[in-house]
Amino acid sequence: MKYIDFHTHIFPDKIAKQAVEALAAESGEYRPVIDGTLSALMASMDKAGISASLVANIATKPAQMVPILDFCKQIKSDRIHPLISFHPFSDTEEVEDVFGQASREGIYGVKLHPMYQRFSIDGKHMYGFYELMASFGFYVMFHTGFDVAFPGNDQADVEKVRKVANWFKDLTIVCTHVGGWRQWDRIHCLRECENVYTETSMTLSEMNDDEFVKHLSVFGEDRVLFGTDSPWTDQKKMLERTLQLKISDSFKEKMLYKNAAKLLRIEKP
């Protein structure tokens, strides 16, 4: 069986150490297990037997949008599938131009983080961007739920995701952390949102296997993606834990590879 990790982070070599140290200062009990460089991620993937990883990038200011696109172009390969990002207060025409360049490079996804980018998922100023992403056939990965670095912040609340999913049914949404980190008692509101997927990072360390499987059932086997949030968890350990789950082989194959391959356009659905 092939495996795809649908949630990782790396940085350009010259800033990786500084970036990881800054994030680690606010990451609570989650400590980096690799140094945030491309070479470290590739070594981790090889150790775990992971075929490919999605690399999520976040533009914390408008000026970072183009450098992130350039970084994505540099690292994209058969094994590394990067996500572009834009800032919610970027110029719409500039965002559209970046989307066009990304699409021509075979990049079809966007990562947004409401806390770091200071917006609410259901904010009205985001509507035009959601329509634009849908028109390009892009999917958007949101950080969803709470965040250890922003205690009590509800900008990524799962109910906001539900609203956007229902308003923009042509937009494919990927929630992180099985619906919403530490909002698992409320993710049932996403059950009927057929355009919403989720990835699994930062959850197996928060609950037992039975609870985890119960939460996955909200989405069903066609809308779940394996993720680790590397460097914040160990890819090999998370994959081994996932393989031990008491779910069908079909569910595992879809979660660990097929669903991701579909979104990444590695294989036709």
By CATH reckoning, the class would read Alpha Beta
The H/E string reads EHHEHEHEHHEHEEHEHH
The Rg value, from CA coordinates, equals 17 Å
Annotated CATH architecture = Alpha-Beta Barrel
**Strand order in the sheet with the most strands:** 4-5-6-7-8
Count every helix, treating DSSP H or I runs of 4 or more residues as helices: 10
Mean pLDDT, nearest integer? 97
- Structural shape: globular
Can you give me a brief rundown of this structure?
With 269 residues, this protein is of the alpha/beta class. The protein has helices at 13-24, 38-48, 65-75, 92-104, 114-117, 127-135, 158-167, 209-216, 235-243, 249-264, and strands at residues 4-8, 52-55, 80-82, 109-112, 139-142, 172-175, 196-199, 224-225. It has ten helices and eight strands.
Structural topology:
Blueprint: E1 4-8, H1 13-24, H2 38-48, E2 52-55, H3 65-75, E3 80-82, H4 92-104, E4 109-112, H5 114-117, H6 127-135, E5 139-142, H7 158-167, E6 172-175, E7 196-199, H8 209-216, E8 224-225, H9 235-243, H10 249-264
Parallel strand pairs: 1-2, 2-3, 4-5, 5-6, 6-7, 7-8
Helix pairs in contact: 2-9, 3-4, 4-6
